[in-house]
Design brief:
272 residues, mainly alpha, 5% strand, binds zinc ion
């Protein structure tokens, strides 16, 4: 789209001339940056197009996104057909969660917690800030890689890594804490049990002990330690008990979504 291209070029020119600090990225530019990157990711990553899977992840994701102050964004939720555990967000409202993460979740609230966390990275604009910072520290290649076809040659594992971790440098601890707090708030507001967040962290930390390579990509972009579990639990404790009563932990729709995923052909093997 020429309109999108020119907005991206303006943004790039601004970044090149003035440095990231001077370039205020508008919400519209943020959406355009996300859309361009998402189009790249569509060609690089194996995505699940099964209608039932697409429909469920979008209905759960939108239930959460509607509870944020960015309900006006056009949110997109996609399941990546990878056994590895990962989830990531692009500026403007594109959220990706790997099949491997969903398979490890026991109930709906745990996947909702991860989506709520990624939504938090978007609403607090960590994703767009991160792209700007990478530009600032000489990461022009990363942004160009994001915006052009240069990095498309490496299919499979390389592409998964590009999209899942290398593209996005580690979020800072304070970004992670903020996204966790947003995840808790968003879960509660949308009627979902926020305990899913510390529970999912526990599952991932346990997996890191037994099968570290499966969760590498997730830990590479989202520093996760015991402290995040206790901080999240402490935040949940601050709610009056009445506010947490009756929140949904699981649904039959989530369990049939999981069964649907289990019934799909195995994820493609990463190409070396
Ligand atoms: Zn994160």
């Amino acid at each position: 789209m020429p309109a999108t291209q020119s907005a991206i070029h303006r943004l790039l020119a601004c970044l090149a001339l003035a440095g990231a600090a001077a370039c205020a990225v508008s919400q519209q530019q943020e959406v355009e940056l996300g859309a361009t990157t998402a189009a790249q990711i569509d060609t690089m990553l194996p995505l699940i197009h099964d209608a039932a899977v697409v429909s469920y992840i979008n209905s759960l994701g939108n239930q959460l996104a509607r509870a944020t102050d960015k309900r006006d964004l056009d949110w997109h939720f996609t399941v990546v057909d990878s056994k590895e555990v990962n989830a990531f967000a692009l500026p403007g409202g594109w959220i990706y969660v790997n099949r491997g993460l969903i398979e490890r979740a026991e109930n709906m609230s745990q996947v909702a917690g991860v989506l709520g966390h990624e939504i938090g990275h978007v609403t607090r604009r960590h994703t767009v800030q991160q792209m700007q910072q990478q530009q600032e520290v000489g990461g022009a290649a990363v942004l160009l890689c994001t915006l052009t076809k240069v990095c498309e040659s490496g299919a499979g594992e390389t592409a998964v890594n590009v999209a899942g971790s290398a593209l996005f440098a580690k979020f800072s601890r304070s970004d992670e804490a903020e996204a966790d707090a947003e995840g808790v708030k968003t879960s509660v507001k949308s009627g979902i049990d926020p305990d899913g967040i510390p529970e999912m962290f526990r599952i991932l930390l346990n997996e890191r002990k037994s099968n570290p390579s499966a969760v590498d990509a997730f830990f590479a972009s989202h520093p996760l330690e015991e402290a995040r579990i206790s901080a999240t639990q402490a935040q949940i404790k601050q709610y009056p008990p009445a506010a947490l009563r009756g929140l949904t932990q699981d649904t039959p729709e989530f369990q049939s979504f999981k069964r649907r995923l289990q019934g799909l052909p195995p994820s493609p093997k990463p190409k070396g």
